[in-house]
Write a structure and sequence with these properties.
Blueprint (H helix, E strand, L loop, with lengths): L21 E3 L1 H15 L3 H20 L5 E2 L11 E5 L2 E10 L4 E8 L4 H5 L3
Parallel strand pairs: 1-5
Antiparallel strand pairs: 2-3, 3-4, 4-5
Helix pairs in contact: 1-2
Length: 122
């Protein structure tokens, strides 16, 4: 019964007023466009779902910025970089860095790419 469920704990969720804004590097926006275009060759509906899921994934980072897995980089400006799989598209990965004042989306890559090389091209 729905009334018998334990209450959810939202104590770790920040109020909207405290969420850091999301900033996308131009290459990250280009990545998303290119992936969506490729997916659209097979299915427009799948491409639209991809775009929606990318946005959901990125917006979720504002609420839970530490939820991604660490991804080491030799480039100092990418220190602290993390990754998060795109919901429902597990071959696509969002690379981001939580800064003091923003969450910076660095790249959105597909699993078949050499991720270390591609990320450091930015």
């Amino acid at each position: 019964m729905a009334g018998d469920q334990e209450p959810r704990d939202f104590s770790g969720v920040k109020p909207v007023s405290e969420l850091k804004p999301i900033v996308r590097r131009p290459q990250a926006a280009t990545d998303v466009e290119n992936h969506a275009s490729y997916i659209a060759d097979g299915s427009i509906d799948a491409a639209m779902r991809f775009l929606e899921r990318v946005e959901q994934t990125i917006k979720g980072l504002a609420m839970f910025p530490a939820s991604g897995a660490p991804f080491p980089s030799r480039i100092p400006e990418l220190a602290g970089m993390r990754t998060r799989l795109v919901k429902d598209f597990p071959n696509h990965v969002v690379f981001y860095v939580e800064r003091d004042d923003v969450i910076e989306i660095v790249r959105v890559l597909r699993g078949g790419q050499d991720m270390s090389i591609e990320v450091e091209k930015t």
